[in-house]
Amino acid sequence: MTPTPNRLVDSFGRVHNNLRISVTDRCNIRCTYCMPESVRFLPRGELLTFEEIERFVRIAATLGIDKVRLTGGEPLVRREIPALVARLAAVPGIKDVGLTTNGILLAPIARDLFDAGLRRINVSLDTMDPARFRELTRRDGWEQVIEGILAAKAAGFDPVKINAIAIKGVTDDDVVPLGRFAREHGLELRFIEYMPLDAGNLWERDKVLLAAEILDRLAEGIGPLAPSPDQDPRAPAMDYDYLDGVGRVGLIASVSRPFCGSCNRVRLTADGKLRNCLFALDETDLRPLLRQNEPDDEALARALLDSVAGKWEGHEINTARFIKPERLMHSIGG
Ligand code: SAM
Ligand code: SF4
């Protein structure tokens, strides 16, 4: 029998060390670019339990996964998330547990999350205007998000990163106010180009507010920026520093400058499907392996290795060959 390899390498030589775990497909708001207004959520029994998630992370860690990020839907609607953070932070080999949240439920548990071992937190905030927040998310909650961000800072998260979506004709005027808020509070602001994973099939290439346009707006409204000297060329975000030394902005240009060539990520959905790309059309169902009477760790490791080995070169958003996956963003997690 061939021995099981101990690294997650695909046929393009990309080594995978980063696992994003969606803990629920539910959400307490309805961002128009992510979710439809009414959704049939997964029945609770179909969600992986914390035990099942931890078991999988233990196996993944033996294959080189050392970074984990919890996402959703909205991860904080799942109760006891700090307990999951603590479990995952204690897995041998896991160096870093992060979380991406819309921030609405964050303020009361920011400290518990920090104490549980979470160190990296990203809060999504697209606008500084509560009325615009309501338009974009079909719900109220802007004030709670701001409270959540400030509570995360006070709890010791440093940096707190803010994710803002960049949609042309929609969020253009939000760029500069977000930039000012981030500078004022020492937050790292990152703009994410709008991607074709939206519910309404509204995405068009022309609706992407491009990284270059965002930089122009910030330069005009706040001050000039230059590429950060300590840039990691493999990271999805291109970082820029304000020339006056106050603050940094990241641009995640998934559409205008795809970073597939250095991708190191795999994703686990809330119902236990493994996805080797955000835009993957195929998934590997791990739940039966996790739920059989005696879970077979070897088979789970093999499934992860095979999924990574079979990864394609990259998404083809910029070509006529692109096929939109059936899963929407809220059930992948970003
Ligand atoms: N609910 C959490 C939140 O909003 O941060 C976690 C899940 S959400 C799907 C993760 C990230 O995906 C958010 O920052 C959100 O703005 C981003 N996102 C959602 N739909 C998107 C789209 N169509 N294009 C680009 N980013 C998107
Ligand atoms: Fe919910 Fe996050 Fe999607 Fe907004 S982006 S609907 S907060 S999952």
Gist?
The chain has helices at residues 50-62, 81-89, 110-115, 130-137, 142-155, 175-185, 211-221, 287-291, 297-309, and strands at 18-22, 67-71, 96-101, 120-124, 160-166, 188-193, 225-227, 237-242, 248-252, 265-268, 273-275, 284-285.
Description:
The mean pLDDT is 95. The protein has a single domain (18-332), classed as Alpha-Beta Barrel (TIM Barrel). The radius of gyration is 19 Å and the shape is globular. The protein is 27% helix and 17% strand. Strands 7-8-9-6-5-4-3-2-1-10-11-12 form a twelve-stranded mixed β-sheet. By secondary structure, it is of the alpha/beta class. Strand 10 (265-268) and strand 11 (273-275) form a beta hairpin. The structure holds S-adenosylmethionine (SAM) and iron/sulfur cluster.
Largest beta sheet, briefly? Answer: 12 strands, mixed
Strand order of the largest sheet: 7-8-9-6-5-4-3-2-1-10-11-12
Q: Determine the number of helices (DSSP H or I, runs of at least 4 residues).
A: 9
CATH topology, which one? TIM Barrel
Number of strands: 12
Q: What is the arithmetic mean of pLDDT?
A: 95
Please bin the fraction of helical residues: 25-40%
How many domains, in number, for the residues? Answer: 1
Low-confidence stretches: none
Derived structural class: alpha/beta
Order of helices and strands: EHEHEHEHHEHEHEEEEEEHH
> What's the name of the CATH homologous superfamily?
Aldolase class I
